[in-house]
Write a structure and sequence with these properties.
The complex is a heterodimer of chains A (158) and B (133). Chain A has 158 residues and is mainly α. Chain A is built from 6 helices and no strands. The longest helix of chain A has 36 residues. Chain A is elongated, with a radius of gyration of 18 Å. By secondary structure, chain B is an all-alpha fold. In chain B, helix 1 runs antiparallel to helix 4, helix 2 packs antiparallel against helix 3 and helix 3 packs antiparallel against helix 4. Chain B is elongated, with a radius of gyration of 16 Å.
Amino acid sequence: MSLIKWLLFLHITGAFFLIGGIVIAGTLNLAAAGKQRRPSEIATLYGLIRFAVPLIGLGLLFTLAFGLWLVHEAGFGYGDGWIVAALILWVLGSALGNLGGKSQRETRLLAERLANEGDAPSAELRARVLRPFPLAASYASGLIALAILGIMIWRPGA
Amino acid sequence: MLGATATFGATATVALLGFAAGKREPERAQWLRRLAFRIGLGVLVPAFILMRGGAQWIADKEYPGGKHEPGWVGVGFIVTEPGAILVLALLILTWLGTRRPDSRARAVAPWLASVYLVALGVAWFAMSAKPGG
């Protein structure tokens, strides 16, 4: 099998890891936002989201590294509009995802503490789970990943 | 591609919740299994339909009537067609696990989801690397 086919496989593997990880984190995050969730339940769901983090990290690494290598091997230019747009969106999506992830870590720690202190549903915890900015950052990062997927498939201007 | 990546993520979520349920006390385990079933029904099934529908659409467009269809396209369909039965079996087992906490279905479901993850891996290798294509 040629180098370019291996690179394409590894680049697409990165996309599977990245979007797969985003789906895991997104669905568990939505499940945690349910009404009357006890802190121990939220801590369990946010604890499970941690399994998606290495998947997303590997996905980001594979898509970028093998993507850049593919650009060189396939004869595209690093200055092509669709590649520049994808790179800008990759940086923006990573930054937003990181912001959302930091907030989720803090929420999980609070949920674990409240679970050990009686495990009663808490308005403070629910407000934290539903904080608009981190939630918007996480979902925007997911939408950006889908936009990058669209750019990779249609290659506008190529 | 979107359907396939979402199917991968949804299957992994169902597997993760199923395995996590096996390590929790009965009440918490049942809650996790119910969640796995809801995610299976509400996320995995639509993602699978999107993947299968999208694959058929692109195959009909690129290779109308199945003429000169390369082998790697066939590998994709070999994985997705029995995959429908596997997804259905996974849903039934997850549902049984929520109804009968002592049934073996609760232990089998996450492993079945893991098997499907491996099958999806084979399909994405065939569809992206196109060996022999």
